[in-house]
Amino acid sequence: MELLLFIVRRFLRLVLTILIISTIIFFVIRVIPGDPALVVAGIDASDDDIQAIRVRLGTDVPVGVQYVRWLSDIVRFDFGESMISGASVNKLILERFPLTLTLAVLGIMLGIIVAIPLGVLSAVHRWSFWDYFGMVYSQMGMAIPSFWLGLILLLVFAVKIPLFPLFGSDSLKHLILPAIALGFARAAVILRLTRAAMVEELSREYIITARAKGLTDRMIRYKHALRNAMIAVVTITGIQFGYMLGGAIIVEQVFSLPGLGRLFLYAIYQRDFPLIQGGVVFIAIVFSLVNFAVDILYSVLNPKIRIS
Amino acid sequence: MLEIKNLNISFVQGEKEANALRGISLSLKRNEVHSLVGESGSGKTVTSTCIMGLLPTPPGRINSGQIILNNQDLLLLEEKDQRQIRGKEIAMVFQEPARYLNPTLKVGDQITEMLILHLGMSNIEAVDRALEILELVGLEGGKRILDSYPHELSGGMKQRIMIAIAISCNPAFLIADEPTTALDVTLQLQILNLMLSLKNTLDMGILFISHDLRVVHDISDWVSVIYAGRIVESTSRKELFTNPKHPYTRLLLESIPDADKRGQRLQTIPGKVPDAENIPGGCAFHTRCPIAEDICKTDLPETKEVGSDNSGTSHTAACHFIGKQWKN
Amino acid sequence: MEKLIELKNIIKVFKSHKLISVKKDNYVAVNNVSLDIQKNTIFGLVGESGCGKTTLARSVMMLDPPSSGEIIYNGKNISGISRKELHPYRSRMQIVFQDPNSALNPKMSIYNCMKEGLVNRKFPKDKMDSKIKSLLDLVGISPNHVNRFPHEFSGGQKQRIVIARALSMEPEFLVLDEPVSNLDVSIQAQIINLLLDLKDEFSLTYLFISHDLNLVSYLSDEVAVMYKGEIVETAKTEKIMKKPMHPYTLKLFSSAPGKDSNNLFEADDSYREGLPEKFTYFPPNPDSTLQLIDIGEDHRVGCYTLNGS
Ligand SMILES: Nc1ncnc2c1ncn2[C@@H]1O[C@H](COP(=O)(O)OP(=O)(O)OP(=O)(O)O)[C@@H](O)[C@H]1O
Ligand SMILES: Nc1ncnc2c1ncn2[C@@H]1O[C@H](COP(=O)(O)OP(=O)(O)OP(=O)(O)O)[C@@H](O)[C@H]1O
Ligand SMILES: [Mg+2]
Ligand SMILES: [Mg+2]
């Protein structure tokens, strides 16, 4: 019951966040100088043409009316049509989203599978081989840009040693290298924070109690410390997952993958305002949902949150 | 019996060496509360962590001494064998239950994990036993308590849980490091009474650590006074409170505010406890002592029998001038 | 005797400030407290943790103004007045907390810590040095140490510095919120003696908060016992020590360590020793309100009027 109440409250907060973000996007786009209708119509267009485009874009009515329309569109999850291709923004986004999502999920799995165990290991055996390995890795991970890593990966594992395909996006195999390029830096962040969280928990007083009980080191580390460290780890992993959706734009470019990233990039090149707007709101919604999920998970892990 | 013999411990940090314990000897009998009382920094916690085998080394270093239980020296045991002692033979209760309990683990798990580990119980047996222990420490509500997290319980309840954890494997000895300092007077009394009744029903020996002489007065059978890492006086409770010998003990007793002393100035001890890094030579107390003479600055006083009555109760103190008076 | 402070029906409610909250949980931390504090005396306030002692003290000092009720300081009601009018009272009332560490800025030398308050008070610059040194000297801190930082002092010394800083405002009224609870007995005695000396020297009035009954009964002239936000008993210290009335007071007194008999006093609903006929200690129905009745010589006990009388 408590948990349910908590979930409802967090959900209301999620809705509020999305509302605020949509409002900001709406006004930012209106503030950018230049009339989108002029951009679309080109230099030679007549006044009538421009007016027609305005009607199509909905920019012919006062800003207040536009805002109300915009909000009601969002509620119905309808972002209009692309100015360039005329296809519905929804359809465009939902077509591309699965690929980007798969990429991000693969990337975060890499982080979870590699970074969390390595972080725990580094914390438990401080100044051991694994700790130094982890340190070197996290330094590199944070210093190497993902596009460069992507290019190197392609060069080595697709060109020199052709283990993976160079182009395409048909199978999971196509996504492995991009996922590594995407997850590498995120994993470094997760690793460092996991180590820090674990080191901190191991210095807490309840660990002394656990030792005074005569528990084995394994129980102390994995039953007592890790459980508490996970609270912080889950939060940062969630945040990293959010970052990955953004990071995908670059990696998709390097690997020529037809994901959301490329869609939005072209939308920006071509000043496709409805697509840009829809895209940003969509990303914001996904981001908020991830945060929402993290919050719920967090409260399951941390009994203190639930009652407050 | 649990015997601590001549324990000498330093903390080494770079060039600096802090001599935290300078030859502590204590003996703890079953069914007895032995209090260790002294001011902050005198070495009480170091003593208890060392008995539990929890002293961090480094920075800690055991220079000499023995801790003898069942004819074996705990300091010589390997970590694996020490774990068999911890929790099972000697258990510990800490000052701040809120911080010494795992916040994300139900208190039930925190009690039963030991029963499962040390006594080889099954989960169901362990829960049954945990329910019995809860009753023993006066926590009503059984299963509901086992299913709660520490933050859902009050301070007094948490301290009872700490005690429940400590006594769950029926240890022969219990070390309680300021177990009531963080509690209210009413809760404090409850916990003290609980410890006394557990001592009797479980035939436990309790090392009770405190800086509050009034609490020590209420709970102890035997009292040792510690100053700068040495025991300066040790005797039965009655003897200590009616016939204190060491000037430090005498001053401590006189400095306690009390309704009877209304209108009088309190006795004070000038200065403060020396820190373990630079303990004065000779008798460490000479810098604050009203009866110190030159010899106190150079010669460490021996611990000697100073008992005046013939009841046979041992009363030891370490002072060159036992019995000497001073003017206020 | 003259009253320095009169509290009339002080109530302090903490409201919940959640944006989207399902149930309103307002918490009444101080409930209808009325007290008088006489000039140049020590008023002891005892009660268990969380009963509202600190909250009451902060209300009295207008640090956290009460939700309702009046605070009369030297005959003037200061509870409703503007910030500007309140300003002169700010320095006349000072507070010393339990933990000197949180009261002293670790990055500031003792000299600067002391100077801050004096500058605020527009103390003449040329006399600043000698004033700070004499204040520190007063509390037993060597004036040579003015340039040291808080971490270079022991707990007891830090508490002395906090007291010196409070004194620099030349207060008439000091709230001492468990000022010695964190200190060792020997240091505690030094601070207590110091506080007693200062009281006589500067004709100060203290509100002394503590849960150490032995200490309060040693120190204070009057005692009030607080329980769950309400005062349940108040009297001259000798009176209340000799004849505690309210079951909670009895429980508190019988719990204090260092007595030979210490059995926790458990009062049941029939307990009413010494209480006039038509009253009871236990609320006859849920909405009855506690009242303080005088049982003679200003010994007041909190109780409820029995139904039907
Ligand atoms: N880990 C450590 N490293 C360095 N010095 C230490 C360490 N632990 C304790 N000491 C020193 O040992 C001395 C004794 O400390 P201990 O904690 O035993 O005091 P205590 O009697 O328990 O005091 P308190 O009443 O404040 O708990 C102190 O001078 C302290 O500074
Ligand atoms: N700012 C605040 N907001 C909400 N509740 C508060 C606030 N300050 C105090 N309280 C609550 O008011 C009650 C009284 O607190 P207060 O600090 O006055 O107790 P106290 O008697 O001083 O206790 P202690 O002896 O532990 O210092 C407590 O239950 C506390 O949780
Ligand atoms: Mg200690
Ligand atoms: Mg308080």
Q: Could you characterize the architecture of this molecule?
A:
The complex is a heterotrimer of chains A (308), B (328) and C (309). With 308 residues, chain A is mainly α. Helices cover 80% and strands 0% of the residues of chain A. In chain A, helix 5 (89-124) crosses helix 8, helix 6 crosses helix 8 and helix 11 (260-269) runs antiparallel to helix 12 (273-301). Chain A is flat, with a radius of gyration of 24 Å. The two termini of chain A are 14 Å apart. Helix content of chain B is 33%, strand content 23%. Chain B has an eight-stranded mixed beta sheet, sandwiched between helices. Chain B has a four-stranded antiparallel beta sheet with strand order 2-1-4-5, with helices on one face. The mean pLDDT of chain B is 89. Chain C has one domain (3-17, 25-228): Rossmann fold (3-Layer(aba) Sandwich), CATH 3.40.50. Chain C has helices spanning 53-60, 83-92, 100-103, 110-120, 125-138, 155-167, 185-202, 213-219, 237-242, 247-255; strands at 3-14, 27-38, 42-46, 68-73, 76-77, 93-96, 173-177, 205-210, 222-227, 230-236, 279-280, 291-294, 300-305. The model of chain C has no long low-confidence stretch (mean pLDDT 85). The chains are: A mainly alpha (308), B alpha/beta (328), C alpha/beta (309). Chains in contact: A-B, A-C, B-C. The B-C interface holds B 39-40, 155, 184-190, 192-193, 211-215, 217-218, 251-252, 255-259, 261-262, 265-270, 272-273 and C 48-49, 154-156, 184-190, 192-193, 196, 211-215, 217-219, 237, 241, 251-252, 254-259, 262, 264. The structure holds adenosine-5'-triphosphate (2 copies) and magnesium ion (2 copies).
